[in-house]
Amino acid sequence: MAAKPLQPLVLDSIGIYGLNRQSSAASLPPQYLTTANNIMLDEKGRLTTRQGIQQITNLVSSSATSNTLIVKSLGEYQSATGAKTIFAGAGANIYKMNTATTPYTLTAQSFSGGTTKSDGNWQFTNFNNNFYGAQQGNKPVNFNGTTWLDLEDVSGYAKPSSVTTFTPSCLLGDFGRLWAADVGENRNVVYYSDLLIGHKFQGGGAGFLDLRTVWSGDVITAMASFMGKLVIFGKNNIVIFRGPWDVNVTQPAGSVFSLDEVIEGVGCVARDSVQLIGDDIVFLSASGVRSLGRTIQQDTMPLTDLSLAIKDEIRTNILTSNLSAVKAQYDLSTGSYILGFPDRNIVYVFDFKASTPDGAPRITTWNFESKKNPKSFLSTDEFLYCGLGATNYAGRVATYSGYFDVEKTILANVNQATCVNAGNTWDSTGSGTCWVDSDITYQADFKTTWLDFEQPGISKFLKRFLAIWSGGKNMDITLNWYRDYNVSPSSANFTLDPTTGGVNALWGVGKYGVAKYAPAFQPAEYKVSLSKAAKVVRFEVIQTVKGFKASLQNMTILAKQGKIR
Questions:
Q1: What's the number of CA atoms in the CB half-sphere (13 Å) around residue 423?
Q2: What's the start-to-end Cα distance of the chain, in Å?
Q3: Confidence check: pLDDT of 176 > 90
Q4: Which residue from 10, 25, 293, 365 could staple onto 280, CB 3.0 to 4.6 Å apart?
Q5: Rounded Cα gap, residues 311 and 289, in angstroms
Q6: For residues 31 and 13, what is the distance between their CA atoms, to the nearest angstrom?
Q7: What is the rounded CA–CA span in Å between residue 415 and residue 433?
Q8: How far is CA 257 from the centre of its chain?
Q9: Which of 247, 267, 287 is the last residue of a domain?
Q10: Which residue in 481, 485, 479 sits closest to 456, CA to CA?
Q11: Which of 267, 290, 322 is the C-terminal boundary of a domain?
Q12: 386 in a domain, yes or no?
């Protein structure tokens, strides 16, 4: 009898739908993953590694040993001239990020005569060339481009007459007014300022919206502007007003400002989870990540659950997390909604560049060494910024860039010459400090579903694993394969060693400047010998990222057909 030939079992769409932990791994198609840590999906659906978290600032405090302040909020002030400045909230202060130094410095801002701030968990908003911040239990603050003040210290300030102490937890600057809500003693009222006067909440065109006439027993958690409408989120309801630019006009028949819609039973449980994504709003509800999208055909806003693939897991995180610490950001560079549960040390990435068959975004996860788990996010035209800090790690700011987790540490008792000659960074501000960059590797891993290659009843003699990766120079990889639902794998190790196929010019080619280049690694095939027989098999790939991105092109398993059993 002739020997049976090797059969190629091709997996060219492995994991392209992202993570699914809600369904059984034995019933899912190979397009899903059951683990996707520190993994991203590129525009072609290929599995790739996340970028690094690179520290760019000094510490929030000059004392590296005693500082435990956490950067819990980040915001970007935009002046009338277009100048942009990043501010960070940590502890009882707000800090300015100064980009004229290396590393960037975080300088505490002074509040002349201001009240003590209890925490750095601010929500920042731009309005009429001013920058405002609010957080629960604190008086709002204002930056006019030069000076920080408590809002009550701004000339002409007028608080709403119906409250004793004006302490809103959320703000929105839009429709010609500053909107403030969730005041401690009136948690279901939205206050709006006079037209273009963000510090005047009484008199003139200022006023309020009392949602007790709209819902029952709810409190406001967040606000957003969406397609010319004001969206107010409660914990269990959503209220939508049309024509908010005309809010202070007496309302005759046919008035522009009016209640548009009330969505009952679904609300937002985390203020900083609300993000605008093109023609949609994404937020965290009590049951998961939701979408508030407006259809073209009809004037309604249907809700869509975006986290069905991880519903039980994310529900557990909602129930066990400090929801006031939950942070989200729409990252312009990756087209992803990033949702972090800092006290659970998990970040979910909802990739909107492509979707699963049910129309939901593809999901992967990021995890970090606990002290470097992001506590806040800010996406700008240049970078995704992350605020860091923990009880044993001084507060600082990092960017999502490169392929190392870069940490800056201070080298004690070193003078400038010694510091520079060693290739380190000398910070001449203050008393002078020598900063050392440490390039820290991190692990990216994914696990497939149980694969039967559409032959569930036939045993396969596993002979060889073939995979094509792009990039990943010097990346160590461990390949584990599990057989027939066994929890103990067989393993093999190899290293990615792509060849350089020329260089790509990044910018400034020819007479217009000096060209800068980056290596272009050609795709390479990697082979691993497999062993034993199985009806179903599952693969786990563990990658150690060492400065280079790696993208998986496809996987192929060579096997011989065994018995039908």
A1: 2
A2: 21
A3: yes
A4: 293
A5: 9
A6: 6
A7: 8
A8: 34
A9: 267
A10: 485
A11: 267
A12: no
Confidence of residue 563 (pLDDT cuts 50, 70, 90): confident
Q: What are phi and psi of 211, to 5 degrees?
A: -80, 0
Name the strand (E) or helix (H) holding 4. Answer: none
Q: Which amino acid is at 24?
A: S
Task: Count other C-beta atoms under 10 Å from residue 510's C-beta.
Answer: 8
Element of type H or E holding 418: helix 416-421
Q: 314, 289 in Cβ contact below 8 A?
A: yes
Residues forming beta bridges with residue 556, ordered by sequence position: 10, 466
- Band of pLDDT at residue 63, cut at 50, 70 and 90: low
Nearest to 269 by CA among 294, 290, 241: 290
Range of the domain at 558: 7-19+454-564
Radius of gyration of the chain (CA): 27
In terms of Cβ atoms closer than 10 Å to its own Cβ (0-12, 13-18, 19+), residue 32 is: buried
Give CA separation, 431 vs 7, 67, 349, 410, 565, in Å: 68, 18, 41, 13, 75
Containing 353, the helix (H) or strand (E) segment is: strand 346-355
Residues present in the chain in total: 565
Strand order in the sheet with 288-293: 275-277, 280-285, 288-293, 303-305
Dihedral angle computed from the Cα positions of residues 125, 268, 195 and 174, in that order, rounded to the nearest 10 degrees: 50
Distance CA 420, CA 429 (A): 15
Residue 91 in domain: no
Q: How many CB atoms lie within 10 A of CB 502?
A: 8
Q: Which of 493, 460, 500, 448 is nearest to 475 (CA)?
A: 493
Please indicate, yes or no, whether residues 11 and 146 belong to a single structural domain of this protein. no
Give the count of domains, the chain: 2
Confidence of residue 2 (pLDDT cuts 50, 70, 90): very low
Which of 379, 369, 279 lies closest to 333 in space, CA to CA?
A: 379
18 CB-contact burial (10 Å; exposed 0-12 / middle 13-18 / buried 19+):
buried
- Residues 213 and 200 sit within 8 Å (Cβ to Cβ): no
Burial class (CB in 10 A: 0-12, 13-18, 19+), 140: buried
Q: What residues contact 462, with CB distance under 8 A and at least 6 apart?
A: 481, 483, 530, 531, 532, 533, 534, 537, 557, 559
Residue at 514: amino acid letter: V
Model pTM score: 0.93
Cβ contact 343:332 at 8 Å: no
**DSSP class of 316:** H
How far is residue 476 from each of residues 443, 444, 466, 540, measured CA to CA in Å?
10, 11, 16, 14
Query: Measuring CA to CA, how many Å separate 418 from each of 102, 421, 426?
Result: 17, 5, 10
| Runs of H (alpha helix) within 279-340 | 311-320
